[in-house]
Amino acid sequence: MNRRRFLVVSTSVVASALLAACRGEATPTPTTAPAATPTQAPTASPPAASPTARAVASPTLAASPTVAASAQPFKIGVVVAQTGNLAASGRRHIQGMQLALDELGNTAGGRRLELVPADSAGNPEQAATHVRRLVESEKVDVITGFTITPELTAVRDYLHQQQQLTIVSIAGWPAITRDPNVRSPYIFRSSFCQGQYEFIQARWAYEKGGYRNVVMMAPDYQTGHTVAQVFGDFFKKSGGQIAAEIYPPLNTTDFGPYLQRVLQEASNADAVWAWFIGADAIRFMTQYQEFGLKDQYPLLGGAEVGDDPYLPEVGEAALGIVSAINYAARYERPQNQEFVQKFQQKFNALPGHLEYWGYITIMILAHALEAVKGDTSDKQAFLDAIKNVSFEGPMNRVRFHPETKGVITTVIVRRVDRLPDGTLGNVVIDEYQDIHDLSF
Q1: Which of 40, 48, 181, 432 has the fewest CB atoms within 10 Å around its CB?
Q2: Is 294:310 a contact under the CB 8 Å cutoff?
Q3: Predicted pLDDT at 309
Q4: Domain count, the chain
Q5: Which is nearest to 287 in space by CA: 235, 231, 248, 323?
Q6: What is the pLDDT of residue 213?
Q7: Do residues 292 and 258 share a domain?
């Protein structure tokens, strides 16, 4: 009981969920979305970027001389949590945007770039109220953000009906890019799609990790079941077996009974895949080691299990965890090294995926503004400019899939190692390029 009491107290501080963005959160059933009328696009997957593109320096955007810098500012509404348990996620995302604005001198295509943040507090109703205000009163040019999926599902229909340009820059709701009946010609996504990491990790676990029989553990709510299904389906397609599926409730304090089931139901397993978020992720990693499972079953981390911000809190319990994601500060690419250096200089911290998504979102808008010379009066022309954006970002060439309008990304597999300075950190052990929303 002393151990459990200690865990409850020690993890309450981190319940702010530093990386809440990845999770998608509990996804409510959205209102029936009117069928979108997507712009014409080829159905085939876009060609892979040339391997040499990884070494090309990111182009420097020059201010367009054809539009005066004193023209109407280009207003970017950013709807993210800035208070409450998810406040750290919104803060970090905006930091990535601020770094991009610094590099651009707050100008693109001759237009002054202006952030208009709005605090969703992780609440769908509050997010919807702010979205309406930003669109109808603030007259923003674009809406970005959405810390969790329920914020996005609450406003998708409104954004589509208003024909409001939107770049979802955090939430991973799959339908917004994968479902033809939910997509909108006005909505893009610059972050990720739930399942995009899990199918890669499942393939890696079988083909390169050498695992054949895996226990799956995830929280007992819609997103937990969704990502577990993707991992399980692709692991079985690769030739593996699922020894057991265990779904503790959200905010589980004591994982002991669920870890005991691993021993009871899956003694023949050779690894455990676990997808947890926030304080649950910290408690799980700590208790997994205390329960004595770490030496018996290697741990494959999903969501925030093994994520860098939690390593100081978790310590040795995280060592060796293998996870998958689409950003890593230690990814060896010139553009990423430059991004990391600039971010450290400005914020005295390593960037993560939240900062990366914020950064490329602003750069996407800047390149599109340059393409139309700052003139966004022709909405379709500006939508086409965004759709056709292509530039070298920190992780890969940033461009959108022509059908889904989600970014094509590089998914990396990483492992928590002891670094030369004695601290723990994720190191890249594999990478999968040109992954998009329809890759799985």
Answers
A1: 40
A2: no
A3: 82
A4: 2
A5: 248
A6: 97
A7: yes
Residue 61 has what pLDDT? Answer: 56
Report the distance separating Cα 351 and Cα 80, nearest Å: 18
Helices (H), 307-352: 311-314, 334-347
| Cα separation, 438 vs 403, whole angstroms | 9
Residue of 440, 384, 385, 366 whose CA lies nearest to 409: 440
Structure-token pair, residue 236: 């079985």
Pair 106, 212 in one domain: no
Domain containing residue 292: 196-325+413-435
Whether residue 420 sits in one domain with residue 271: yes
| DSSP-derived pairing of the beta strands 213-217 and 241-246 | parallel
pLDDT tens digit sequence for 12-35: 433 343 344 444 444 443 433 333
Angle at 414 between CA 424 and CA 354, to 5 degrees: 85
Cβ partners under 8 Å of residue 81, min gap 6 = 20, 87, 89, 90, 119, 120, 121, 122, 147, 148
Residues 298 and 345 in one domain: no
| Overall average pLDDT of the 362-385 stretch | 98
Q: Are 217 and 248 in contact (CB under 8 A)?
A: yes
The residue with tokens 């109808």 is 136
Cα-Cα-Cα-Cα dihedral of 33, 36, 41, 47, to 10°?
A: -20
DSSP 300-314: EEEETTT-GGGHHHH
pTM of this prediction?
Answer: 0.81
E strand spans, 98-247: 107-108, 111-119, 142-145, 166-168, 187-189, 213-217, 241-246
User: If you count them, how many residues does the chain have?
Assistant: 440
pLDDT in tens, 298-322: 999 998 899 888 898 999 999 999 9
CATH code for the domain of 167 = 3.40.50.2300
Work out the average pLDDT over 383-401. Answer: 98
Best CA proximity match to 171, nearest among 155, 142, 187, 193: 193
Task: Read off the pLDDT of residues 116-126 as tens digits, 9 standing for 90 and up.
Answer: 999 999 999 99
Using alpha carbons, list the distances in angstroms from residue 284 to 136, 274, 288, 308, 425: 44, 9, 6, 15, 18
Tokens of 161: 């009906």
For 341-346, what is the mean pLDDT? 97
Rounded to the nearest 5 percent, the helix, strand and coil shares of the chain are 40, 20, 40
